[in-house]
């Protein structure tokens, strides 16, 4: 299996790129594995990768009902940041951020993680109080970030409209310099290639149809490609976690909603950072290809249709035009939708379930992409050891019974 | 954009309505006698099905009535809307047969 | 420059009307009726752009929406448009177009050096490199980004208006070719409401200038008559220049109508574009079919066009796209192009047909016209630099998989390609339908519709004129009938034409080893070649979605309209799958790119982005110099600076004025709800945490509303006006939510309760008159009320008058002072306010805003829901446990208060903070720690939610939520600030002013 | 302060001029009386009381409006109506209703300052409103005697045809009236 580098690229160029090996194999599923990961999105593939890398588990498989990275991993606006309010979230996302910072090298796959900074805008006095509170908490938690004024934002982003007479003027922002964006597909592919190299079977077009259990202990799954036995099963299926939970016989505090995003036609570089506004509902960055990548809001109703309402697009585009009036003549090329599983406290659920050996990692809502490596890392620990890592202990399912919620609504909103 | 038939006002654009979550979740009567688990179940646990879903909507910009709808969460087709005091359509037919 | 490539006659251009325009700094002349592309071709301009990755020369290839190459930067300054598709830009006087993605110039593009390194830059090469050294990525990326993108975003604000409209119709017909026109005629004649939208300036589609006949007249004449008939009908809306760009659920479609872009800049008045949001009972998709190019080595040289585009340029625009043409086809339709070219006096060197035999009437007509037809052969390569010079043709083997014999070279400057046709199924697919592959015709045709919708004509795979007329008419009749109209139109007639079957040909066999020869392009904008697809497959990217994403195929501004079907078929071939197995990528809106401005429409600017809600006294506040704060959608006076005062100075002055004498605050924005009915008190018992049954009429009570999770949701004073009548106040931001919340419980859970709720937020204007002199002021204005301390106690409510105007006065205080809230119907709000100001003059009555209100209440430790709470705070946490009834069996949220987490003793609890230095104010949002020297991550104890300098206390005050704070009075905490400063403070009770609470009783 | 106006419409800041070009006319009808009435339409006490005071029972058919004793009665919901009276009449009618409804589960609330009325008339009246109203205003669908609560842009409103069918009557919450008027004026530019 060839390592990727400029040298291998040159070498292969000479042989017309005919000697590259597959980034990952497409094996037939075996009858039994030591562990199964259901869901071949970024989080699932990362879980498999770290299970192999950190916990030495090699006889494992990732089951994906469609094509890997085809869910929210390939449908989001790729924003990465760790400036969360509460300690529990901050530590988890910061773990993820640290993994991001070495991910391309670790995976030997350029995920194009680009730390061009993230601005979270404040449009009123309460926004600014919340921003101060969050940035102060971040700082004391060892996470970079500071509060910037409207003028400082304008200096960094000359195209932005900071007119204080507009409807919801930009008053200030938090700025996390280490935040940024990554190439979403590459993250799935890089983890898949890494996991495959460690021996993990990545099985696509394999839909789980039932979860087998005996006396409250998980024993395997039925799939469209036959039954597979395993005593450890990690479920990482984003929007579909309620469907899998129902198979296993319990309910989740989760509702799956459509979340939309859109891109413009490619234009020459004009935005060099990431700008997020909860208050007017618009997030924007520019991809390396030149598209303006824009996140819209979440639709209020539940939906598995991977599409939302036009009114949401209309509202977000208006918000972007308020912030960047010169973009009115730029054109929107394409829109799409994902399915986000939201929890009552806007925080994920990572950990054990009522069924022994069955673990769930879900509820990332609109913010899962940035957590991909960290989520996989802690979940691998949880699956391997049968109990949570310190970093995901607080994200247990039973917090909805005890009331120990981690309310990130203010900090997360529909933030990507 | 959904087109939702308010049981009073008829078919109206989605933008007149607001979604109000899963329907037919009755508030427990003697809450103090409930276990933490039972209370959490009422408070947080949801069916969230992929397929037919019974849910509440409020005709917020219209008659301000809450009503129920049965909607497919994949196709978004609404097979029926019914008033709060009415039974879901399928239950009704079962009663009739 | 002369238009040296104009035909001598014909076309739908106005030869009398010359138009001057410029491209790439040079001036040219075109004709009215031209597109930018047709005018450039008429002038012999073939090199119009550079591709994205390799910067290869690119020329016009299509005549429509699927154009990937002819992308321009239109105009300059605030009217510039990046990435305009020249095939759809109507020529206007003084038009100015520039190429995109070429530097320093189109003719000499330095980045075309990329072409030399092309072998180093296969699909996804960047995933494999740029990783070392780690810190260099941002540098590498800087250059990658510089090379990216096509056009340039405007740097000035857009001067244009954009409009919206919502419309409903019985039948919406998308596409105004003959099928669409037939459908529209059939539906409209029945009386149905019909909208017909077409993206072009003229209706008629591909038939518009084709030499065919309908109902025994020229097709173009028939089209004109059909359009005239439709235009004369009341219930028909004709929308030319209108692209249906999205097909959503419940037959909701969005149309972008371009109103002025076809006019000279100086004549552009009014809105530039208009988005129609249409709800249709029935939809007829008559979007036509698009021709596919063929994929072979160097198939991207300028001078290579689709055969149908060649016909369109020749017939409609009177342009000869070249002087010597070779036609390369695998089906019959391109033979018509040969005839069209001949008619336009273009030399047709040969028709190269991959099929071993072609004997249809059309093919024979071509032969009889003296045009050489070379059957069983394919074009395998081309030569030329910035313009095509020749093509190489080889014989196809009997099995069609390889080529043999020496290549024959034909000199030509025009290569017309036809690889077959693809129905434009985009909208069908967006509506939920699934395109189905048909092997015989080699097309993805629409599957079964999932909405009230039907595809007809080319969009349904029907390529014959006669068939289009029939399908359109039938669909129009059926759609109208489905809407309850009588419809029975008969289709117009046209000669049926028989044609030979297509020979599907994807990756054209060539003498080169697969993947090794010169690049054979699939996606011309993003430079995706056959080799890229093969590499992706080799590397395990098997799903069509993976291949698309790995190679960037179809990500350009044409969204793969031109190349994707070829790409999918070549992928299928490479994987040994059928095309049906490989399937398509998902079709998503927008069909073509749409201006952000058009989507935003009028919803922009300080007045219309979101409603600006104003109180009845708003103008007074403006006239008296108030600065405003946005509170939800409301504008509230924030403070009233005098003579250039700073916020702090103004607030200090306002605070002291209130404490010392009297101030006045506009409190109109508080939510107000009338609650009536026999069960009102019982209802409030469930809604609020405290008791309501025994409250006597004429008295009010402060209450907390919890969510079912036990957390504070809203608060306010509710007054009992009668036995069965209450008047509730909510927070400003919470008003709408609280009403819906209460309605929900009444309607869904407790329908047996006799309670009616009515929102009267807007009806009442409210002035809070606050301070020791407030009684003097209100008693001078409000008549019929006994204002004595005994006659009007704290938390009482009284009705009186101000002149003829009814008023209600509530003795409520959010400041710890003697205070009255005076309410009158809002039409009299300003009158009341001015009367109070007048009466307060002797006491120097001082208007104050929300900032002073915040300070005053903080001095008393009163919380603001949303500032001192954040959805994770209970009433106990606020130290207000007294507000929770110990006797009630139930209220909303009660059960949650017994959970493990909510009974914790070390929850974050509201306390006061006094700083060591009385003049240092802790910034709101500061985090608190026990030991500011502790290592990071530093354990945090809580945060400061409200903090001010209290002029009246003479020191700073703060409210904070601190872990176990209620039991930590007197302890020290520290606020380490971002600038390195650490503020030391002592935990106290949250009441700083008038701790005994005697002030309101003055 | 003799120059004090005792009352002001919510649109005090807006200048309403003559309609230009083909733009519809936009007029405010200020200071009407608005009463919100709630009760059970089938209830005999409610029927009797409303018949007595209003001369009719409030409409039970959804989205309809009737006129009786110079009062326009709009259906707002199955147990909710809006009564629009001439300026200054609302107090008396409210008092009469309340006394007639004494002991009957009902509610009469004066909302006269809480609502505003705007007339939009002329050839393009429907088109102007359709700039951001999702309701079908075509004469086949929206007829005399009908009313509807819907939205215009981001403001909720109640709409009905003017009695002479030359346009529409819009009832809007006071605090949104200013926004709505600015919207309409801005939209009207397209018709000038």
Instruction: Compute the average pLDDT of chain C.
Output: 96
* Fraction in helix of chain C: 10-25%
The unreliable regions of chain C are: none
What is the arithmetic mean of pLDDT of chain A?
Answer: 95
Using a beta-carbon cutoff below 8 angstroms, give the protein chain pair with the largest interface and the number of residues from each chain.
A-C, 115 and 113 residues
Largest sheet of chain C: 7 strands, mixed
What share of residues of chain A is helical?
A: 25-40%
Q: How many beta-strand segments of chain A?
A: 19
End-to-end distance of chain C, in Å? 93 Å
CATH architecture of the largest domain in chain C: 3-Layer(bba) Sandwich
Strand order of the largest sheet of chain A: 5-6-4-14-15-16-13-17
Q: What is the CATH fold-level name of the largest domain in chain C?
A: FAD/NAD(P)-binding domain
User: Which regions of chain A have little confidence, pLDDT < 50, spanning 5+ residues?
Assistant: 411-416
In one word, what is the shape of chain C?
elongated
Looking at CATH, the homologous superfamily of the largest domain in chain C is FAD/NAD(P)-binding domain
Can you walk me through this structure?
The complex is a heterotetramer of chains A (416), B (97), C (1002) and D (192). Chain A is α/β, with parallel strands linked by helices and 416 residues long. Chain A has 12 helices and 19 strands. Chain A has an 8-stranded mixed beta sheet, sandwiched between helices. In chain A, strands 8-2-1-12-19-18 form a 6-stranded mixed beta sheet. A 3-stranded antiparallel beta sheet of chain A has the order 9-10-11. In chain A, helix 2 runs parallel beside helix 7 and helix 3 packs across helix 10. The longest helix of chain A is centred in the first third of the chain and has 16 residues, at 125-140. The model of chain B is unreliable at 92-97 (pLDDT under 50). Chain B has one domain (3-88): Folate-binding superfamily (Folate-binding fold, 2-Layer Sandwich), CATH 3.30.2270. Chain C has 1002 residues and is of the alpha+beta class. Chain C contains 22 helices and 50 strands. In chain C, 62% of the residues are buried. Chain D is an alpha+beta fold and 192 residues long. Chain D folds into 2 domains: 25-30 and 113-191, 2-Layer Sandwich (Gyrase A, domain 2); 33-112, Heterotetrameric sarcosine oxidase (Alpha-Beta Plaits), CATH 3.30.70. In chain D, the strands form 2 sheets. Chain D has a 5-stranded antiparallel beta sheet with strand order 1-7-10-9-8. In chain D, strands 3-4-5-2-6 form a 5-stranded antiparallel beta sheet, with helices on one face. In chain D, strand 8 and strand 9 form a beta hairpin. In chain D, helix 1 packs antiparallel against helix 2. The longest helix of chain D has 15 residues, at 174-188. The termini of chain D are far apart. The mean pLDDT of chain D is 95. The chains are: A alpha/beta (416), B alpha+beta (97), C alpha+beta (1002), D alpha+beta (192).
